[in-house]
Amino acid sequence: MCNIALRAAREAGDMIVKAADNIDGVKVDEKNKYDFVTEVDRRSEELIINHLSTAFPDHSFYGEETGFSGKEGSPYEWIIDPLDGTTNFLHGFPQYCVSIALEQKGEITQAVIYDPNRNDLFTASKGQGAY
Fold first, then answer.
1. Contacts of residue 83, Cβ cutoff 8 Å, sequence gap at least 6
2. pTM for the full model?
3. Per-residue pLDDT tens for 53-96?
4. Interior angle at CA 52, CA 61 and CA 115, nearest 5
5. Predicted confidence band at 131 (pLDDT cuts at 50, 70, 90)?
6. CA 1 to centroid of chain Cα atoms
7. Is residue 114 within 8 Å of 14, Cβ to Cβ?
8. SS3 label, residue 32
9. What pLDDT score does 11 carry?
10. Rounded to an integer, what distance in angstroms lies between the CA atom of residue 39 and that of residue 122?
11. How far is CA 112 from the centre of its chain?
12. Which candidate, 39, 14, 15, 33, places its Cα nearest to that of 90?
């Protein structure tokens, strides 16, 4: 599961970096005061959910931008922040990432954080940590 989330994060990260090259052309909406959402947030979230739902059609999803989707009542729920650091992205600061986690029966069991600007990738799987 972590490997599939990793591939989704990398694909979304590639899209985000390409969009950053043309930041002036990115459509921006304000969700709340000082809380922005861009078309890049929405497209990258859609990409991630499509990637994960193809692999796991019986899972549910909670995206920061779209809320809940997928199979209602599933014990598996993916939690997605497709562009964690939207304000930095909008200002041209390359400090943002893609964040994906999997909650199984109320417990986080997988996590992926991908910084596409530095190609830094952090993963965690419950029970697979180092001492």
1. 16, 38, 40, 41, 44, 89, 96, 98
2. 0.88
3. 999 999 999 999 899 999 999 999 999 999 999 889 888 899 99
4. 95
5. very low
6. 15
7. no
8. strand
9. 97
10. 25
11. 9
12. 39
